[in-house]
Write the structure tokens for this entry.
Amino acid sequence: LTPGNPKWKRNNLTYRILNYTPKMRQADVDEAIQKALSVWSNVTQLTFQKIEDKEADIMISFAYRDHRDNSPFDGPNGQLAHAFQPGEGIGGDVHLDEEEAWTKGGRGYNLFIVMAHELGHSLGLSHSNDPGALMYPTYSYTDPNEFRLPQDDIDGIQAIYGKSNAPVQPTGPVTPQACDPNLTFDAITTFRGEIIFFKNRYMLRKHPERTETELNFISTFWPKLSSGIQAAYENVERDEVLFFKEDKYWVLRGFDILPGYPKPIYHLGFPKTVKRVNAAYSDETTGKTYFFIADRYWRYDERKKSMDHGYPRKIVSDFGKIGRVDAAFQKDGYIYFFHKTTQFQFDPRAKRIVGQMKSISWFNC
Amino acid sequence: FPVAPEAEDEGQTLQLVESYLQNFYNLQRDHQPHLRKHSENPLVAKLKEMQEFFGLQVTGKPDLDTLEMMKKPRCGIPDIGQYM
């Protein structure tokens, strides 16, 4: 919240678009701004009416370098935009740096994302230090079609304007905290010596030699894979990582998705009855990859590039009581299975569970 | 004399750090810039404030993670205080 708690005295606000950028179709600019306004009206009782002529509460314009508000822009990149806290005159106004590469997609800077952030300021919010929050100071792309206002921002705006009228209060994604004992994972894979833990639209990167854990948006590295990865494994021999989401999979070499992907998982030999993969790991010594689906598992031969015969088998028959597998990876000869907040260490030589830990044991909590 | 590369780098680094802290952490523009001076000068104090905000290691020095964060495209509004 902003010191002094500036806020609009009424809920029905007006906005006006003073000019347009030549880098986008006018209709796309209108749509991006309208969608950005709805981010905030969806979670409060605020309404926004577009006006074309008079002075509006929120005046939106594209501006160049020194535009006489004592806060000159700095050319491409750097500062993208700014806005003023609620108040008369310049209060509430949004200025966008005309020299930025404004777009409606993932290239350049997505106008919807930046606009939604700046409108947070126009309504009285300051910056959040939650790296997953919309009001975090630095830019990060989220597909507008998949965008959901994070809980941190909902809490902030409702602290100023109260809750929405909706029968069910809206909620938003919460940024994973590495040492949250309730943290569970969607998928985990090794990756060139690191371990990457996937959760919603985030990835936590852990390098064995570094104490701290790095939190990133998945889209920072793989814009096309913005969230919801369900299984992943590394084929060390081929320096590839495979990601699974619903009935598709992607192959990545380094940070690049190989052309021709995604492909249907049925290309690997799964029957059509399989709709998604829960977890996977690959044993680099045997070249065998294990896929876990519900209470069964398949084994795939990376060298023959086909499923082994005699599968699927019951997980409990060969791996013991590890329940449904959320995620798995192999490290230093052991297999680590994750089931909710519990982690099992499995010794494939002894063919039995040799340890049980919290799922967050890798984060030096 | 031609500026030695590291000295030039240091000059650029100091400039980047200084303008970032002036823009977003209300560092006064008339302070004397010394990254090395031992007593806690305003620039080091503001640098620590920025590192604290972003959850970086609070070193008071322009380390790699800090400089990387400063180079990220962002909103022009300060991270602290009002934005009248």
Observations:
- Chain B is about 50% helix and 0% strand.
